[in-house]
Each structure stands twice: as C-alpha cells, then as structure tokens.
Amino acid sequence: MPAHTLPSPVRLLATSGPGQPEASPELEQLYRSFERELLVPLWTEIGDLMPVHPKSKATPHLWRWENLVALAGRAGQIVPVGRGGERRALALANPSLGGKPYATPTLWAAIQYLMPGEDAPEHRHSQHAFRFIVEGEGVWTVVNGDSIRMSRGDFLPQSGWNWHSHHNAASAPMAWIDGLDIPFSCYTESQFFEFGRDQVAEAEKAKPERCRSERLWGYPGLRPVAQPEQLTATPLLAYRWANTDRALAEQLALEAEGHPATLSPGHAAVRYTNPTNGRDVLPTIRAEMHRVRAGAQTEVRREVGSSVYQVFDGSGTVTVGARAWMVARGDMFVVPSWVPFSARAEVPASAAGSLDLFRFGDAPIFEALHAQRVRIG
Amino acid sequence: MPAHTLPSPVRLLATSGPGQPEASPELEQLYRSFERELLVPLWTEIGDLMPVHPKSKATPHLWRWENLVALAGRAGQIVPVGRGGERRALALANPSLGGKPYATPTLWAAIQYLMPGEDAPEHRHSQHAFRFIVEGEGVWTVVNGDSIRMSRGDFLPQSGWNWHSHHNAASAPMAWIDGLDIPFSCYTESQFFEFGRDQVAEAEKAKPERCRSERLWGYPGLRPVAQPEQLTATPLLAYRWANTDRALAEQLALEAEGHPATLSPGHAAVRYTNPTNGRDVLPTIRAEMHRVRAGAQTEVRREVGSSVYQVFDGSGTVTVGARAWMVARGDMFVVPSWVPFSARAEVPASAAGSLDLFRFGDAPIFEALHAQRVRIG
Amino acid sequence: MPAHTLPSPVRLLATSGPGQPEASPELEQLYRSFERELLVPLWTEIGDLMPVHPKSKATPHLWRWENLVALAGRAGQIVPVGRGGERRALALANPSLGGKPYATPTLWAAIQYLMPGEDAPEHRHSQHAFRFIVEGEGVWTVVNGDSIRMSRGDFLPQSGWNWHSHHNAASAPMAWIDGLDIPFSCYTESQFFEFGRDQVAEAEKAKPERCRSERLWGYPGLRPVAQPEQLTATPLLAYRWANTDRALAEQLALEAEGHPATLSPGHAAVRYTNPTNGRDVLPTIRAEMHRVRAGAQTEVRREVGSSVYQVFDGSGTVTVGARAWMVARGDMFVVPSWVPFSARAEVPASAAGSLDLFRFGDAPIFEALHAQRVRIG
Amino acid sequence: MPAHTLPSPVRLLATSGPGQPEASPELEQLYRSFERELLVPLWTEIGDLMPVHPKSKATPHLWRWENLVALAGRAGQIVPVGRGGERRALALANPSLGGKPYATPTLWAAIQYLMPGEDAPEHRHSQHAFRFIVEGEGVWTVVNGDSIRMSRGDFLPQSGWNWHSHHNAASAPMAWIDGLDIPFSCYTESQFFEFGRDQVAEAEKAKPERCRSERLWGYPGLRPVAQPEQLTATPLLAYRWANTDRALAEQLALEAEGHPATLSPGHAAVRYTNPTNGRDVLPTIRAEMHRVRAGAQTEVRREVGSSVYQVFDGSGTVTVGARAWMVARGDMFVVPSWVPFSARAEVPASAAGSLDLFRFGDAPIFEALHAQRVRIG
User: Fold this and answer.
1) Portion 190-209 of D in contact with A at CB < 8 A
2) pTM score
3) CATH class of C241-376
C-alpha cells in the first residue's frame, strides 16, 4: 500500500499575510513534511475554517415549478418506478455544491411523480422525510399500513425507520415535493435503510378520507390515553390544509383586531409540531407555512442553518442575499445559512391576495445543539 | 409565653405490640419528656406514617347532580355574587376530611352558579383551575381579556396567576363545575391571590363563538410561530366538545376495525394536554374524558393519587373500593388514592348508548416527583 | 349506614363581612342543607383557602441539641431497636401542627440513636430520606449491600425504595439526624413500605472507609460509563465533609479575591446534587450547607415552602419571622413557608469562626410544579 | 451570468442495474435536461445516498506521537505564534477526506505547541474545544480571565464563545492536543469568531495550582448555590488526572471484588460530564478515558459517529475495521462511523500495566437528534 499523502490540489503553500511565517526553504521543507505525515497547519487555514460568521458554500437559487413538473412528467413517460431505483424523484442540486443532489448542505428537496396506477415500493430508512402537496390529488402514502390521502396544501411528515410506500389511485399523474435530511445523514454517516415488500397490499389500497393517525391524534390539545407519551417524532401523519389555512387567516384577523398574533405586521406563520412534545415535527427538520398579506413585507432575517421554500399560493418578490425573484405557485428556492431573507407579497390587481410560502429547514439541529443564532434586520 | 406541649389528644401511650418497648414507669416518664420537648417517637407511629401502601383518609362518595343543582339554584336566590365572596360556588366536602371543602386531600370540586346578567368579579390566584360544563350555556369566562364561550362538554383550563371573571349573558341561570388544586396549595402553603377589577369591562362582554386563544392555538399540531415556546401551562383556553366527542368515537371505531386505539375493549379515553409540550393541561391537574361502550366495563385500576369524576352522559355502574353506584348525567364521585376503580356502561333498552365520564386528578404531581404507581387488575 | 353530615365543629355560620349574604332564616336553612349534602360554600371560606400570600400553619421553633441528645440517650437505655418499631428515632413535632411528628407540613426531621453493637433492621420505603451527622462516628448505613461510613459533616442521601439498615460498629452510642418527606407522602397518600431482613448480614458489617458508590461516583464531573444515565435520584450515597468544607472555604476565598462566588457578602452555600442530572439530590428534598463568615449576615429571604436547619458549627443568631435565637452546634429550627429568614454569625472572641448551617427543604416539589417563588429583602 | 449546470465530473450516466431505466437516446436527452435544470434523479444515486448502513468516507489511520512531536517542534523553531495565524497547531488530516484538516468528517484533532515564554493570543469562537495533555507541563490556558494549569492527564473543556489564550510559563516547550468540532461547524455553516486582546494580561499570568472554576465546581455532587443552574456547557474547566486515574482504578478494583462497575471484564471507563446536568461535557463532543487491564480485551463495538483516540499510557493492540496497530504513549488514531473497534492491552514483561486510552467523539450530536445506534460484538 502506498503511503498516504495529501492530494496535490490542497498542497500547502507558504503565503504572506497576517500571522503567516516568512517563506523560506526551511518552511517549504516543513510544509512538505506535514503533507507526508497527513498534517495541516491551522495557521494557513484558519480564515476558512473559523470565519467571523457563516459564509455558506451554497448559493441562493430558484427552480421554476413549470420546469420541475415538465421534466418530472417526461421522466414519467420513460423511467419506470420500482425496486432498486425506489422512487421517481428529482432532487434540486444547489449550483455550488459540486453537482450533489443537495438543495443546501443539509437538506434534500425533490419533486416526486407517480403515473396513474403506479406504486412506489415499500422501504424504510433512518432519514426523516415529509411530503408537501402544492397541487393535485389521488395518491395515498401508506405508512406502516395506514393509508394517507395527499391533497393540495397537506403536509405529511414521515419520521425515520417507518415502512412506507406510495400508490396513485387516480387517473391522472400526480407530483409533490419530498423533503429529507439526506445530506445531513450522508455527511454525519448515520444512515440505515431496509427494503420492504415490493407491492402495496390490496388491503392498503383503501382510500380513506382520514387516515388512522388523524383519527387518533388530529384534535387540538387532545391525546389518546392509550398511546405512548413523549414520542421523538410526531404520530400525526397528516396536517391538513384546511387547518393551516384557517390558522393563518385567524392570525391576520387577530392582528387586524389589535391583538398580537403575527411575526410582524402582515406576516403570519404556523409551525408543524409533534403533538406529544410541542417541538418540531421531525427531529432534524422544521416545517412552517408563512402567509404575507398583500402589500406587506417580512422582516429581513438571517439564521444559522438553511431553508428551502416552495410558493404555495399567490405571487410576490423574495430576496435572498443579493438575489431577488418574482415568484409564483410552485416555485422553489433556497436560503443558505446566514444569508438575509425577506419576502414581499404582490398587491393583486383584483381582490385580496396573499403570498403563502411553505418552508422547511434544519433549525432543530442547531437548537438541539444550542448553536442557533438569529439576526433580524 | 407558655411552653409548648403536644396537645392532649395525641399524648403518647405505651402500647404493646411488635417492636414496642415494655410499659414501665420509666417509659411513661420518658414519653412525658418527649411531649414536653415536642418530640414524637417513630416506633409508636410508624404503622400510620409508613403503611405498606396508601390508605386514604378520604372516603369514596357520590353527589347527585339534581341535588347539587337544586342547592346551587337556591343559593342563586338568596346569596349575591360579588367582591369578597368572589364566587357562588359550592364545594364537595369529602365526608372523612373533617368538614373541609376538599373532595379529596388534594382536589377541590365545586358547582358554580350564575344568575342571568350576573358577573363574578375579576381576580387571579396561583392555584390552577378549570371549568367543565355538563349542561347549559350562556356564560362567558373572560381570561386576560379573552372572552370564552362555555357550552355543554367544553373544558376550559385556567392556569395560575391569570386574571379571570365570569359573565352570564343569557336569560337563564347557568351551572358548571370548577376544579382546582386548592387543597394541595393550602397544604403546601404556596398560595397567592390578587383582586382585579370589580366589573367586567363592557368591551369584554363580547360573546364570540371562538375565543382568541382558540383562534391562535386550536389546530391539531400547529403552533403560531410568534407565540412563546414550551409554556408550563396550556395557552389553549377552550377544548370543545365536538373534538372530544369525535376523538372518542374514532377510538371505538378504530377498535372495531381491528386497530389498537383504546385502553381496553370498549374503553376509549382522551387526555387534555398543553399543546406547547404535550404534557398535562395544568401543572398539578390531569383532566380526561372517558367513554365506555354500552355493555363494556373498564379494567379495575388503582393509582397513587386521587380523582374526581363527573358523569357527562349515559348511565351505568361505577365501583370505588367497596362502594358501587348507579350513576347518571351530572353525578359526581371521588376515587381516593390507591382505591380500586372500575366502571360499567349500562346496555340501554334502545339504540346505542355509552357512558361518558369526565375525570380530573392529581397525577401530574406524582409524575413530576417520580412517585407515580399504577396497578391494573 | 347513617347519612354523612359535616362534623359539628365546622358548621357553617352566617357571618357578616364583605361579600357575605345577610343573615336570615332562609340563609340559615340553606347552610343546613349544604351541610346535609356535604357541601361547603366558597364565599365563607375564601379568605382562608386563598390568602394573598402563604400564611403557614407551622410555627418557627427551636430544639436544643443537648435536649435532643439527652432524650435520645435515655431512649437508648430503655427502648429497644427492632422489627416493628424499626428505628429509635425522635421526630420534631411542630407546636402548631396538632401533635403530629412533622417539623413542617411537608418535612420530617428526627434524631436517631444507636447503642454500641445495635442494628436497625432492614426495610425500604417510597419516602425519600437522608442522614446528616453533626457529631460522632462508628455507624455504617448499609444500602442495597453497600456499607457507608457515617462521620461528622457527612451527608448520606437515601432515595426511595432502596433497602437499608444501620449498624453501630463502635463502642459508643451514636446520634445523627434523619430527614424525610414523610409528611408530604402521608398527605399525598403515596407511601409504600416493605420489610427486609431482620439482621444485617455479616458480610455487610464491613467497615470500609469509602463505600462502593463513592468509589464509582465520587469524582467531580466524571461518570462511570457502565452505569445508567439520568437517574431520578442520586447514585452517590455519601457526600463527605472534607469536600463540603473546602467548597465553602473556597467560595469565601474567591469572594475575598474579588470574584463572584457567594450568595451575598460573607455568605457561601453549596447544594447537594444528583451527579447524573445536576438537580436536587432527592426528588422532593433540597439539601444545602451554608457558611456565614464571622460578623456577616445573610440577606432576609422568604420562599414558598419550608426548611429545617441544623447548626453544624459556630454560633450566631438566627431570625425566623418574629422569633430570634442564639444558636450553637446541633441546634435545630424550622422556617415555615413564606416566613422571612436571616442568620448572623457571631464574631468570636478569638480566632476566625463562622456559622455553618445545614439546611434541608421541600423546594424541589415547588420547582417541579412551577410554583416556586422567592423574595429577597 | 451564465446559466448554472452541473459540473461535468458528475454528469449523469444511464447505467444498467436494478431499478434503472433502459439506456436510450430519449433517456440520454432527459438526463441532459436534468443537468441543465440542476436536478439529480434519486434512482441513479440511491445506493450511495441511502446505504443499508453507514459506509464512512473516512479511513482508519494512525499517527505516531514521536512524529507529531518532532514536526511540531520544528514548527516551533520557524513558525511564530501570533494574531492572524492564532495557534501553532497541526491538525490530523484523514487520508480520504480530500486533504482537509479533518480527523473524521466531524472532528478536528491537532497537536498544539508553545515555546517557552510564548503566548497564543486571545480569541473566542462558537466551536467547542478541549485540551488534553499526554505529557509535559508549564502552560496555563486562560479562559475568561481564569488561569488553568495544564498537566499530564488533565482534560480542559472549552465550550463555545468563551475568551481564551495560552501562556507557556515554563522554560521548556510544551505540546498537547486540541479537539474541536470544526469540521461539523464548517459543514453546518454555523461558525462565529471574534478576536480578543493580543497579549495575555500580566495579572492573568498567575500560575495557580487550581483555577477558579475548580475551586467553585470541583467537588463531587456539590454545586455552588450562587451559580446559574443547568448550563448547556460545563462550568468546570479542568478535570484532573488524579481523579480520572482513581475512578478507573476503583472500577477495576470493584470488578475484582465481584461488583458491577466495568463495561466488560477488564475494561473500565469514565466519561467527562457537565456537572450542571450530568450530560456530555460539551454539546457536540463526548470525551472519555478508558482503561484496559493488562491482558484484557474490549468488546468489539460499532457506533454511529466517529471517534479519535490518543494512547495515554501503556501499550497494546487496537483494531479498527481491517486495520490493527501496536500502539504506545501519545499515538493517535481514528475510528470512523460504524467501523468496528476493539483494543487489547499488552501483558507487560514486568509489573502490572494497563492500556489507557483517551477518546473523544461526536456521539452527543446523534443522541440529541435521536439518531444514535450502537452494536456490540
């Protein structure tokens, strides 16, 4: 076995600058010795390793929904879904993360697509996941035998190590987005995966309006006494749009009546939570729905950690660092760590409109490790 | 100041028995010396102080709703409500707790009664409270300026140190039950109280269908992002019957479909929880609604700590230790610590019926202190 | 069975006063009806039940150590120790708690006494306990087979449901104090008790300098990896005086060097904690050692909940509400809920002296239930 | 701005295999469209992204202490320490992590070196750090003005955002190791950094035997009452070898006496913990000292997450996956995620010896996120 050495692109160079030793043959020889011993000095790297604040490798970027749907639809024509490939999903690849299918360093975001009658086979994995449906209907996700209807505006969390499959029971294709912590679990090397049954059982092809988990857990502030307490991930497998919509509308109504309810004037937001502990819906993923009243603008906010947004409804302008885009239904974009973000809802020509933004991010990781920082303005 | 001595009823007696010293003049003299010094030997008391399991001083007892309502109604005729007396409330006094207004050693349970147009004046206290409505409507409870409708089946938690008053906006009297931890806070000497305004402000005499706290917090698994996290008591001030009823019905339906959902066959139960942490709705009080399917019977259960029940609907037989009663709507009874309890729902002559039991108890105290024990069967 | 009625001493009287109904025959009749139905109105009782702040039933009181030891010694002569009586312990009975062996409403404090060669038999109970040794040596407490030396200044916690016995291996009697939550567990009716072996096994009559739990857990900030995590009660069964003394001395030294370390000038304090979670050493009992520098005085402090103090060393004056006592080694006194307390250390005629006060109280109960309040000054 | 596309090295290829679509011109065209739109299909990547168990990119590797010290010493001759470079530290660069100064994907491990009289300037950063000293003495680390002696076997945690500098007060150079979560905070983009004073203040050049934090917190189970409760990182800034050594020796002695104390026969271990909550000493880093009795062998263990070891004393053989090395004092090696690890202590020719291994790892990250898995054997 050849001796290891540092790869040539990262060879140590004597550089001038504050705190750097003078270039000299001895220094050059020392640096070569470091390389042979697989050592890297801190003094040449500290600026990159320990910046004064996060400087994300990720880039703000926007994907248009029409393009995503068009390409997913073409894949629907020629790429089968089955065991081995597992899912017909197209992941957003941040332009500055080396071609990896990572929307941000920690987050996976993909459009998934099922043709009429298709099944995506059962598996389970330690990665935490969710589905969010911006349009369409007709697919049921089956989690541990519980069939969950997927309709516009619904949020379906899927915590790690639960068996799941998807079944399109409709006569039209359906697309939705998947969010997972795949990049984080790749990076931390903590992934486990297991194949399940190849076919969804006929009995699981029921198409109930409400799934069993909703029937057990879908009531505000009520817990079934027979169920276990303080679960690390939510037992509620569907968060329906009707509730989310009403909660946002009421925040804006309460604000209009003079009561504190919103994050800032015209900016309502709800967070999907685990009803057994009130915390984030998944151990590594925060998910929220934001509504910006027509004509209003959110505060400019930077946070440790990254987010992916999808426009659920309305139109407006979002600003991510130096980039700004006019956005409309389905468009997806990323906000890297510590990059300032704000959104403004367009004033529609006609009746009342607002900008609804679905957001998911990695904040629970930082809060669990006491590393969260937020700066407003 | 005279020297303290032990009161004569508790004078120490030399007794015979296992572990007791022989009676003798010296022993008698020693015991008198203990009394003068305000000392009590463990060896004469240990059986009472440290029994092999709890032997409650409280007695199982039942109060009939018709009697409670009748007496509260007569009080409504001749006892005014106002500052000083504060509330027209009649507390259940357990027959073996010395005439104190304590349903159990830790729990206060009372019927409160307001005549048409009456106001109960504003105050606040460190004791935790709730209201539960077995029948009637027309009263609004105002908590920190938020007017909360009270209707049959609703549960209104009221955590400590919040301003509150009641206003009967209807043309008929209304009765409901109050539950508090008054005996526990008396015993632990931890009570604080403050008077508020004498009159409910006109602006607070609004009669909204939904209160502000419901509009903010009343959605399963959704939290308003602008509100504080992990509150020690629930921010949701009304738990509506429609949700409770549906949750119970679904547990029995899921059981019938073959899925685990109930505590035991035919026995459904939900617990009222704090949505910010998934724990009990109040730091010292657990509140639950139980439904026993017609013809079914609960398991026999003993628990450290005591409970008060009110029959919400249906009829059946409840067994508390050596006592058993046929019960009907509104009847209230107590289950002392470690006394076995079970309930059986009557099979109605006609259509499907079930026995709905509202229950509150002191279990959170024991769970917080790691002293909880439960025995089934 | 005769109908229950309220005992005559607590018969309801029509009284005049704010918020009270006018006396009348109808009112009298109503009150009699309440009694028959075992109901008590809130409006006649609210002042006692819900005072503006705690007004303790307990009285500040002092017991002199010389008296305690003398009476315990006489008991040693004529009262055997054995199965049934279990322990030769004399409990402080607060003068206003009806002759019950309760130092305060929640706390048991007793002097225990063993003659040379005596064994106190093994038992276990759900009540939490500790031993504190103000003088003497020679007894070993055996907890689950682990023999623990008891020496002056040592604190031995004894969490619920562990087998324990005591063995006097010396040629002289030994006295120490026991603290338990007996009154609290009596009141909350949560007690369990089990007899163990009648004799301490010979193998357990070893007299090791350090017990096994110390050898495993007695190192600052180090936990044995093979032991369970996050225990609800401490696994460390002896807190030795040498550590306590040094910690207090260092706080005063740091203060003298200009660093923040003390509660107030000249007032050092350490709390005994559970090393697996950093919280109080027992779920229901807080234990601390305080040192007041000669000539210094503590802040005046009131707290929800009660405490018992024993003077460990030095002399000074303690003030509890309206009472003040000059105290010396071994003296014990109680501080009821919300009664102001302060201590002043005497300036000794000769060299440096300080007042060392051992304290235990019920604060963990209130903190667990979010009911703690403290007022300084 | 040119349109983004995926970098050419990661161009999507139509591959054959389970679950893959048939190669075709249409598929090729589709894949090119994905690239243009910055999309990556899951079906071509799933094996790498979601393996059945972690397959670490990191490689087991060993660095010999003599080499580390020699190179650090040469750096001491020609590389100054000062503002800008900040520290004369040489980081272990795992051979398969692209030349980055990362011992594992999450952990930084470096040898730091100070010449006599040198100061490393003050700074602070959000990254958590510690020092461990395998040999030498004479340097004091100053944390927020508290001077901490560094001696063989001592462990000095340094939680994020505290000011710190180092000062060599001796007449000889000194080397030690630094551990940090730099790679994790780089990856998660959560780093903050601030420069402090360029010189250690003269007053901070005191050389106390015990630092202030030890004087406050260095007693088993005792907390200073005046200090804050439940800190997220340890307030104890030095864990001294004498305690660590004794704790390990006692575990082996207890095992020999027949009591459970060790992880497996002959394998003792202590974990450095935060005394305010009993949890890991730093929010992202676990640190432990292991002792393997001469002739004994640890169980084979795999864990999610990675570790770095340094041999503190003794000699033996360590096996990491397919690699095995004879190791001696100071040698450092890495154990990647889910790679089996075991150690065997050499039987020394002469007297009793044992193998002492200092270990640090990233387990708290996985425990906080409920992603930890361990497999023994």
Assistant:
1) 190-194
2) 0.95
3) mainly beta
